[in-house]
Every structure is written in C-alpha cells, then in structure tokens.
C-alpha cells in the first residue's frame, strides 16, 4: 500500500532521515516508535506531503506522491496537537470539511457519536479544551472512511474513557475493515492491543522492523514495553 | 429780450455747418465707396455708414473725420491688406464692424492702423478675424475704448495681437474685449498710458504684454485662460491694481510674469488657478500688497536676483507651493501675509502667529535644481522630507520668513 | 476552492481590524471632504492616503493573518487539496476582502467629492496596489517561517517601496542631473508600483502642469489610452509575478 524507498530529509545542515526503506500493507497495525528526535514526526509529515521529499521516493498504491494531493483522500490524519481557527465553530468545521469532500456521500460517524461531538456544535474552537479538540480531530480523521489512518500521539490529551473508545475503534478498523493504521506513541501500553508490527526509528534510521509475533518469540515477553526493552538491551550488548 | 430767442436757436442749429462741417451718408456699392467718400469729404465731416457690407481695404484716412457706423454696417477686407490706415490727427472711428484681414508674414497687417497721429478715438467697434486688430504706431493721446476684437488664428506664428501699440504716450485702452489673438494687448515703448476694464481671454501668448514701457497704470482688467496672464518686462514704475489673473494653466503658464522691472505696485489683484501665480526675475523695489493668491500650483516664484521687494498683507490660500526661490539668500521682505499652510499658533490671540512662517517648500527647491525630481510630486518621501525640513531647517533660505503670519485671511473684497 | 474562499472571506469580515480599517478610510475620506471641499484636492489627498495605507495594511495584515491561519492551513492540507489551491484561496480571499474594503472605504468619499474618471482610475490603481502588496506579503510569509523575521522583512518591503526607492531615485537624479534623464526616470518608475500608479493618477489631474518638462514627458505616455493600458498591465504584472513565485515556493516548502 505504501512504499518508502531511500527516504532522506535534511533541514538546513541537519539530516533527520538518513535513508528509510519501509513497506506498509493493508490490515497492518503499525507502531512507529523511537526516542524524541528520531524522525517519527518527520516521516509522518513526509507521508502526508507536509514535508517535501527529495531525494527518495514514497509511493501510495504504486503512485509517487511527490507534489500530489489526490492520494490524501485515502488518509485520515490526527495530529499530535490539533489547532483550529479560534473563531470557528465546531459545526462550521464539519460543514466546511464535508463541503470540501463533497464527493463523499456516506460518513463514518461512529466516533462522532461516541464522543458526542454534536453537543459541541455551537462552541467556538478557541473555547474547547485540549482533550475536546483531540476528540474533534479524531472524529474528523475517521469521517470519510479513509483506507489509511495516521495518528500522531493520539492518546496524549484524551481522557481514559475516550482513549478506550478510540482504541476499540482502531482495533475494529484494522481487524474487521482490513485498513492500515499507523500510530506513533510514547505510551507503549496504549499500543498493546492494536499494533501488529513495530518499527523503531533511531537517529533517522530504522533500527528494527519486526512483526509483533516475531518479537514476542525473540524476547519471550508479553508486554510491548518489556519486549522492546529486552530487545534493545540485546542489541546493545551485541553491538 | 424774448425776440432774441429764435435767433439764438437758429444760430445753434447752424453750428455743425460752421467751418463747412457736414454729415455724409454712405451706402454699400460698386468700387471704392469709402475711399471716394473720404477723398470728397472736407475735414471734420462725419461719414455715416449705412447698413450693409462694404468690400474694401487699404482705406487711407488722411484728414480729420468722424467715421460712424450704423447698426449692421460691415467693412469686409476680403482677406487682403489693412482696412483703415489713419494718418491724420483728430479722427474718430466708431460703431463699425471690421472683418477679414489676411495673414502676412512680411507685414503686421491690422484692421485699423494709426500712424504718427494724436487725438484719435477708436470706439465700440467689432473686429473679427483681422490678424492684428488695432495697431498704434508712434501715436500719442489716443483712445481705444469699448472694442471687441476676436481673432481666429490657431497657432501662435499665424496670430497677431489684438491691440498693438509701438511707441506712444498717454494712450487710454479701456473696456475692450480681446480674445483668440497672440497677445491681447501689446505695449512696446509706451509711456504714461492707462489700461482699464478690459477683458483679455483665450489669447495664445499673453493677456497683456509690456516691453520697455514706463509709468503706466493698468487696473480692473480680467486676464483669463491665456497662455500666460500678463508679462511685464524691462519696464519701470508700472502700477497694477485690482486685476484678475485667472486660469492660466499649462506647463509654462504664469498669472503675472515680471522680468527686469522696478518700482511698481501690485495691489488688490486676484491670482487664481494659475500654474504659477507670480513669477519674478530681476524685479526690484516692488510692493505687492493686499493680493489674493488662491489655488495656484506655485503662488510665487521669486528668483534670487530679485531685491528689495516688499510682500505685505496678502492672502495665500490653498496653493500647492507658496513661495519658490532658487537662492539660499533672500533680499526681499515678507510680512503680515496670511498663509493657509501656516501651522503655528497664536497664544496671545492678537491675530498674528507666534512663530514665523517659512513659505518656501523644500521640494520646490529640489526640483529647481533637479527638474527630473518632479516625478516624486505627492510621494511619501517628499512629504517626509518636508516635515523633516520644517523641524530642522537646512536647505531653505533662512531669511525668507514671514515674522507676522496672520491667523485668518484678510477680508478683502476682490470683485 | 470556492468553499474555502467563502469560509476565509467570511472569517475575514468578522475580523475587527478589517472593520477598523474601513472606519479609518471613511473617517479620513469624509473628514477631508469636510475640510477641503471638493475636486482635485480631495483626489490628491486620497491618493496620498492610498500610497501610505494600502501597502502597510496589505503587508502587515496579510502576513499576520497567514501566520494565524497556519494551523488551519495544515488542517486543510490533510485533505486532498493541492497546495496551489490552498494558496490561491488565501490570496483570493485576502484580496477580495481588503480590496473590497478599500473600494468601499474610499469609493464612497470619492463619489461624494464628485470625482469623475480620475477617481475611478485612483480606485483601480489602489485596487491593483492591494493585489500587489498582498502577493508580496504572502511571498514573505512563505519565505520566512519565523514570524518575527517575516514581519520584519515585510516592513522592510514597505519602507523600500514607500521611501527608500524614491530616495535612491532622487540620489540618482542628483548625480546625473546634467544628462537628459527624463525618459530614464520614466522607465525607473516602472520598477516601483507605487510610483507608477501615483504618476498615472497625477497625470490625469491639473497637478501634471506643475511637473514641468518631466511632467510633459510623462504626460505623453500616461494620458494616452495605450499608455494607461501599459501602466495597468505593468501593475498587473507586479501583482502576478510575486504571487506566482510564492506559489512556486509554497509547493516546495516544508510545512
């Protein structure tokens, strides 16, 4: 579904991505992890076309995404921090988005209803709390039935109840609807039931890229956190 | 006693025929009707032109006569030579319409020429398309009054002057209406003469043009929409009062052009909507007072070679530039004028501003040195420079100030 | 694109600054009429106001608005919208609102001052200035991700076009005064849209006669229909070129 080939990205003199090769396919629950500054966000921005790519190649369903925009109709994106124009009402946001995507006739309103967004309709964006804005953002990401969901630290601002609702939705999306979900998160516990594959970035390179089952076998751990810790320990002692 | 009355009355009725003076009526006809009549007339006869068109030119008036037109009497020069040439004193030419004198590049042809005469009166005539209108040459004590002189020329080189006076003394030019000529009135070597109540409009060069003439007065005239209003050059002791200089607008137009003149007075005039209101070059000892200078591009352009002029009690209102000069020194005196651009205050309420006014504009000074800088007119740069210059005067002549600027305009009546 | 423009334009009209701008134009416009009466003086005064205010408002307001709406831009960017569509939407809505306010703000006083064709020409020139300086503002906003830097440079642009350029021209004219530079000055004025538009409007008024020989040279070009057309085309180019460069930069920018 998404192919990344020798992706490099430099900002000024600093090389943030130093040659990334990855392939993501439908039905995968992919956890993109790594320490701060490892290039997770940059990689996501490259996928979304927010950062321009060169040199390197990113293909979406076989098409080069460089300077393209149409492919983004298949992507739902929930940013780490959602900011909206302060004077804008929630209702206006949804109306605008629907009018932009006028070709879509059916909406995925599951999260929209679960988070009770309609109750916020008359509120101005500037008055919403961070958590509320994250809920709006999440509902928006799922609204147009995207084939790919990209979530940057989705659980950071959400309350536990909402967090569970989102996780449940993600599980369904991956397993029942066979879609690709790409999540970055620090809170590895949150990814436990969702992730089927782990990609660990370190200083702009892929340190490892393994299926969860594979990793489980190698480390004989059950919990994600422990698995990674064990694995990294092994790696360093080898290195 | 009563028996004397009829005798006196009959004597009075005989009076015109004293000295053989009689009235002769003229009718249009074949041949040189007018010339023949003049030939046969005795001095002091009156020729009355009956209604109709007389096709004749080169008419020599060589004896004292009264030439009087009745309503509708027209002399048509047929685009030929001059119509009347008056070489005798004591001639009077009245109420005639003269038209069509041909343009010549060799000779200044005029509808009426006065040559070395005195005491001639030209009154209430209408002149149409006559190249030059009335031409006085070495003549004295003549009167040109109430004539309407309208030219038809469209370029300056093919245009003559409406009233042209070359060498003369004590001439009165009054109540004439002059238009579409080169100059409305042209004076060269004319002294002690009086010009008043004329209307000079739409002439190509000047409404009134003085050259080498002294001790003249012109007042209560209107000069409107000419190439330039009035030019006074190489003349002394001219008095200019209560005239109007209006709408002389164009790249090189002036209301009043003063060049090499001394000891005149300019009082109570109205200068309105001229590109330059008053332009002075080599003008000395003039007194300019109680004039209104309004809505001109440049109210006064006074060059550095002007000395000892006194500019007093005038109203400067709504001009783009108030005073221009090309010199860092100023030898003229400005006092007690009203300047609408004055931005000072009057704390003691005596009607006089507490700070002196500097009427010279920095931009005008710059464009005088660098004409191309005109392109910056009305730009923000220029406005900023003006403000800066007002706060820290550097370039404009320090002495060119009005120390008694008025707070409100003088209530002069200019009409 | 229409929906986004509609949304942004509505958002802009709710902006207090825009309302204050309109109020300012009205107060100065009608104030001038009550102080100076009617006719050409008003036209020239409004020309001066336009020179001063339009570039300033367009540059500062547009750049602040762009930075403030940056998050919203990112949000829209997640949708299948081309970057050029986004930028064109921003440019169009800013142009519509700012030019509209300008036209409404000065057009009304001009109408009451009884200005004729020259008044319309001023409004047309002023509108083109709006388009030009909004384009330059977006160019700066895209070039500089840092707000302070973008703001600083847009003020620099303002100073350059309003003051510095003319200062340099004056300096040039001082040094080459012995040469017949009137024609050259004409071409130099093409390099500053403010000078170009100002001279265009001036040439239609009586003030042209105050400009002497330079004025005569300018008048040959600026009063003919082809000359007016040429100036308007040049002004349009001044609007289009910076904006098309900004699209090009925006397409390559890391957001």
UniProtKB/TrEMBL annotation, chain A:
SMART domains documented for this protein: AAA
| Alphabetical list of Gene3D superfamilies matching this protein | P-loop containing nucleotide triphosphate hydrolases
Q: Name one GO molecular function term.
A: ATP binding
**What organism is listed for this UniProt entry?**
Cyclobacterium jeungdonense
| Superkingdom of the source species | Bacteria
Print the keywords alphabetically. Answer: ATP-binding, Nucleotide-binding, Transport
Return any one Pfam family short name: ABC_tran
Q: Where is the ABC transporter domain?
A: 2-228
Residues in coiled coil: none
For this entry, the protein name equals ABC transporter ATP-binding protein
TrEMBL record, chain B:
Q: Which InterPro entries match?
A: Carb-bd_sugar_hydrolysis-dom, NosD_copper_fam, NosD_dom, Para_beta_helix_rpt-2, PbH1, Pectin_lyas_fold, Pectin_lyase_fold/virulence
State the signal peptide span: none
The Carbohydrate-binding/sugar hydrolysis domain is annotated at: 49-188, 217-355
**NCBIfam families, A to Z:** NosD_copper_fam, para_beta_helix
Quote the protein name from its UniProt record: Nitrous oxide reductase family maturation protein NosD
Protein's gene: nosD
From TrEMBL, chain C:
Bilayer-spanning residue ranges: 18-35, 42-67, 87-108, 120-143, 155-176, 196-218, 230-250
Keywords (alphabetical) are: Membrane, Transmembrane, Transmembrane helix
Task: Kindly provide the name given to this protein in its UniProt entry.
Answer: ABC transporter permease subunit
Q: Which organism is it from?
A: Cyclobacterium jeungdonense
Q: What is the lineage of its organism?
A: Bacteria, Pseudomonadati, Bacteroidota, Cytophagia, Cytophagales
């Amino acid at each position: 579904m998404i192919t990344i080939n020798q992706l490099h990205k430099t900002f000024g003199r600093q090389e943030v991505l130093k040659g990334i090769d990855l392939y993501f396919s439908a039905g995968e629950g992919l956890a993109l992890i790594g320490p701060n500054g490892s290039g997770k966000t940059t990689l996501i921005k490259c996928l979304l076309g927010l950062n321009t790519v060169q040199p390197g190649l990113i293909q979406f369903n076989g098409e080069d995404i460089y300077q393209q925009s149409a492919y983004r109709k298949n992507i739902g994106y929930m940013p780490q921090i959602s900011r909206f124009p302060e004077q804008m009402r929630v209702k206006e946001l949804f109306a605008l988005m629907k009018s932009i995507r006028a070709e879509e006739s059916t909406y995925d309103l599951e999260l929209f209803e679960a988070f009770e967004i309609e109750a916020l309709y008359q509120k101005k964006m500037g008055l919403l709390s961070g958590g509320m804005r994250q809920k709006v953002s999440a509902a928006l990401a799922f609204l147009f039935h995207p084939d790919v969901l990209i979530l940057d630290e989705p659980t950071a601002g959400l309350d536990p109840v909402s967090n569970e609702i989102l996780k449940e939705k993600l599980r369904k999306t991956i397993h029942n609807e066979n879609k690709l979900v790409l999540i970055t998160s620090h809170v590895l516990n949150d990814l436990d039931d969702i992730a089927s594959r782990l990609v660990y970035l370190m200083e702009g390179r892929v340190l490892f890229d393994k299926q969860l089952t594979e990793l489980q076998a190698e480390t004989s751990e059950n919990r994600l956190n422990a698995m990674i810790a064990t694995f990294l320990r092994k790696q360093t002692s080898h290195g | 006693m009563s028996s004397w009355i009829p005798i006196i009355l009959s004597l009075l009725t005989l009076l015109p025929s004293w000295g053989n003076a009689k009235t002769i009526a003229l009718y249009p006809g074949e041949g040189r009707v007018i010339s023949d009549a003049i030939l046969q007339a005795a001095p002091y006869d009156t020729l009355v032109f009956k209604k109709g068109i007389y096709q004749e030119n080169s008419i020599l008036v060589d004896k004292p006569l009264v030439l009087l037109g009745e309503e509708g009497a027209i002399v048509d020069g047929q685009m030929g030579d001059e119509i009347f040439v008056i070489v005798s004193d004591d001639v009077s030419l009245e109420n005639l319409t003269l038209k069509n004198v041909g343009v010549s590049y060799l000779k200044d042809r005029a509808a009426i020429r006065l040559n070395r005469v005195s005491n001639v009166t030209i009154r209430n005539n209408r002149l149409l398309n006559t190249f030059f209108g009335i031409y006085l040459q070495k003549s004295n004590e003549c009167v040109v009054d109430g004539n309407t002189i309208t030219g038809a020329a469209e370029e300056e080189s093919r245009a003559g002057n409406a009233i042209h006076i070359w060498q003369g003394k004590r001439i009165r030019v009054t109540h004439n209406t002059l238009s579409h000529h080169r100059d409305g009135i042209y004076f060269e070597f004319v002294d002690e003469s009086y010009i008043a109540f004329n209307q000079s409009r739409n002439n190509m060069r000047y409404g009134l043009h003085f050259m080498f003439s002294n001790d003249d007065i012109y007042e209560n005239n209107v000069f409107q929409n000419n190439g330039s209003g009035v030019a006074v050059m190489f003349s002394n002791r001219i008095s200019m009062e209560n005239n109007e200089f209006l709408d002389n607008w164009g790249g090189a137009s002036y209301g009043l052009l003063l060049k090499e003149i001394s000891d005149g007075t300019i009082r109570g005039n109205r200068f309105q909507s001229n590109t330059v209101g008053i332009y002075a070059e080599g003008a000395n000892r003039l007194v300019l007072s109680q004039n209104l200078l309004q809505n001109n591009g440049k109210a006064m352009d006074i060059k550095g070679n002007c000395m000892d002029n006194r500019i007093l009690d005038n109203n400067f209102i709504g001009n783009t530039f108030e005073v221009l000069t090309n010199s860092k020194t100023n030898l003229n005196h400005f006092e007690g004028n009203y300047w609408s651009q004055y931005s000072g205050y009057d704390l003691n309420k005596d009607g006089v501003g507490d700070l002196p006014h500097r009427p010279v504009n920095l931009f005008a000074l710059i464009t005088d040195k660098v004409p191309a800088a005109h392109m910056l007119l009305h730009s923000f740069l220029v406005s900023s420079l003006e403000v800066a210059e007002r706060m820290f005067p550097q370039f404009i002549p320090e002495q060119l100030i009005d120390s008694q600027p008025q707070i409100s305009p003088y209530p002069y009546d200019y009409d | 694109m229409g929906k986004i423009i509609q949304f942004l334009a509505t958002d802009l009209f709710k902006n207090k600054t825009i309302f204050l701008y309109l109020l300012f134009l009205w107060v100065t416009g009608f104030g001038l009429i009550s102080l100076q009466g009617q006719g050409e003086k008003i036209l020239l005064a409004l020309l001066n106001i336009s020179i001063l205010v339009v570039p300033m408002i367009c540059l500062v307001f547009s750049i602040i608005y762009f930075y403030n709406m940056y998050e919203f831009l990112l949000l829209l960017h997640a949708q299948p919208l081309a970057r050029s569509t986004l930028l064109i939407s921003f440019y169009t809505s800013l142009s519509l609102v700012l030019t509209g306010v300008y036209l409404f703000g000065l057009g009304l006083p001009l109408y009451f001052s009884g200005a004729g064709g020259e008044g319309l020409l001023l409004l047309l020139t002023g509108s083109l200035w709006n388009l030009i300086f909004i384009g330059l503002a977006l160019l700066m906003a895209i070039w500089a991700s840092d707000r302070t830097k973008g703001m600083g440079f847009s003020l620099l642009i303002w100073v350059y076009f309003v003051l510095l350029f003319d200062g340099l021209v004056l300096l040039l004219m001082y040094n080459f005064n012995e040469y017949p530079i009137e024609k050259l000055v004409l071409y130099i004025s093409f390099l500053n849209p403010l000078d170009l538009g100002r001279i265009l409007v001036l040439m239609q008024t009586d003030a042209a006669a105050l400009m002497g020989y330079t004025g005569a040279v300018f008048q040959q070009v600026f009063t003919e229909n082809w000359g007016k057309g040429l100036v308007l085309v040049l002004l349009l180019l001044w609007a289009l070129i910076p904006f098309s460069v900004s699209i090009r930069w925006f397409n390559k920018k890391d957001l």
